[in-house]
Design brief:
Number of strands: 7
Helix content: 25-40%
Oligomer: single chain
Largest sheet: 4 strands, mixed
Order of helices and strands: HEEHEHEHEHEE
Strand content: 15-25%
Length: 169
């Protein structure tokens, strides 16, 4: 058939990696220590410990939690440690930082579980568009992990890519 349409992308040796496949589903929340500060600058240990003893930590059940302080206060490190110790038994994960730090940590865990050697000498396209919020960290991390083993990395869609890396011959 001379008018047959051939899908050259489907027949190519390109492997598409969709970072949405590495997105950890689940509710993300931030615990801001600012609410525990006196006049948003001082942490009073006695008041903080009383709060910690009576607060319902079960509200963090099965959630991903970032703990931080959004004000410019000097907060002793032990305060974050206490929060982590109380939230930890309920949450799926607790990190220090904002939502971006939480997202980075989740992607780092997910991508660390990937076996880069299964892409040995492959031509990779890292999918660029999707429906989930993919952190820029994830794009950099996937390049870091794959660069030593693949022959090339491109960004975008197989029909329209931006070259990122190509191994020298």
């Amino acid at each position: 058939m001379q008018n047959e349409i051939i899908n050259r992308v489907a027949e190519s040796s390109l492997i598409t990696i969709n970072l949405e496949d590495y997105y950890t589903p689940g509710e993300r929340v931030v615990y801001d220590l600012k609410g525990n500060l006196f006049q948003e600058i001082i942490l009073k240990e006695k008041d903080f410990r009383a709060f910690v003893a009576t607060h319902d930590w079960s509200q963090y059940q099965d959630k991903y939690v970032a703990i931080h302080c959004s004000t410019d206060a000097i907060v002793p490190g032990w305060a974050f440690m206490i929060l982590a110790s109380r939230i930890g038994p309920y949450a799926k994960k607790v990190v220090f930082g904002d939502l971006q730090a939480l997202e980075q940590s989740l992607f780092q865990d997910a991508l660390a579980a990937m076996d880069p050697t299964r892409f040995q000498d492959a031509r990779i396209v890292v999918k660029g568009c999707g429906h989930l919020p993919i952190s820029q960290f994830a794009y950099v991390e996937v390049v870091r992990l794959l660069r030593p083993v693949v022959s090339s990395i491109m960004y975008g869609e197989p029909c329209s890519t931006v070259p990122i890396y190509k191994r020298k011959k």
